[in-house]
Amino acid sequence: MTSTRYFFYTLAQAFGYRRKNKHMSAMAEETFLLKEAEAYIGKKLWEDIENIEGLSLEYWNLRKLNNERTRIVSELDECQQKLTEVHQEKAGISDTSNELFQNLLEERQSALNLLEELAKHRDEIVNKASDIRRAYESIKSKQEILSKESANNPEDFENMTSKLLQLKSEFDALKSQRQEVAEKIAAEDIKIDKIDAEITLRKKKRRESGSDDYQQVGNINRKISTLRAELVLIDTQMRQIYTEVGKYISRNSSDPKCVKLSKKKQSIIHVMLILRKSINLNRKLADVK
């Protein structure tokens, strides 16, 4: 709002043409811009106001709040770092666990494959031994019957005896093989049981570790939320004081120290003067006391 525009609006009001809402809206917008400018000036110049008596309280309050803000930002950085480390460690443990589980599962599958082969071999031995037993019993029965009937040929009888001894020897060999296979099957069963127990144990440890990680992440996140809330509160308090500092510096042209500081931001100070003037003119046009 310039003096010329104010003159024309005043003239228009004299003829009953009023635009109160427009002037109030303009006044609200300009007031917002003025406060933004004051906060900006205060934020940029507050470290140089220590020797200005009228701003001594604001300076030391800002020093205190700034130190507190630095501490909170430092703690936030530490929390973020810890959170990153926990996530990285969790990812590393997960990768390692998956690799360990994969190795165990591969070992277990290998044992199952071997167990299946051993079972087939055992069945083959049992079937072969069964055939030998049948052949043995058949020859033995023939020999007994012929012996009772006194119709045996000595040479045939001797051949049958030799065959029985051979079959018995083969049966005993198969029996030994079956025992060896049974022992190998038992060993593989024990191995699989141990692998299953190890998998169960590692799953339990991973669950417990995951639970601890989640609890730790939760604690860190809660602390981060608390620190962020404190940071927002401090930033709000500091902004309010920045505004007071900027307002004081821009309005106290009689104080040589304020004038010296104003020169650092002269262009913004000039805009602030224009805004104040425009706000006052819009207030008059809107008839706001």
Structure description:
The protein is an all-alpha fold. It has two domains: 1-50 and 255-289; 53-232, Orthogonal Bundle (Helix Hairpins). The chain contains six helices and no strands. The chain has helices at residues 3-14, 20-45, 56-148, 154-251, 256-262, 266-285. The longest helix has 98 residues, at 154-251. It is rod-shaped, with a radius of gyration of 49 Å. The chain starts with a helix and ends with a helix. The model has no long low-confidence stretch (mean pLDDT 81).
List the helices and strands and how they pair.
Elements: H1 3-14, H2 20-45, H3 56-148, H4 154-251, H5 256-262, H6 266-285
Helix pairs in contact: 2-4, 2-6, 3-4
What's this entry about, in short?
The chain has helices at residues 3-14, 20-45, 56-148, 154-251, 256-262, 266-285. The protein has 2 domains: 1-50 and 255-289; 53-232, Helix Hairpins. The protein has 289 residues and is mainly alpha-helical.
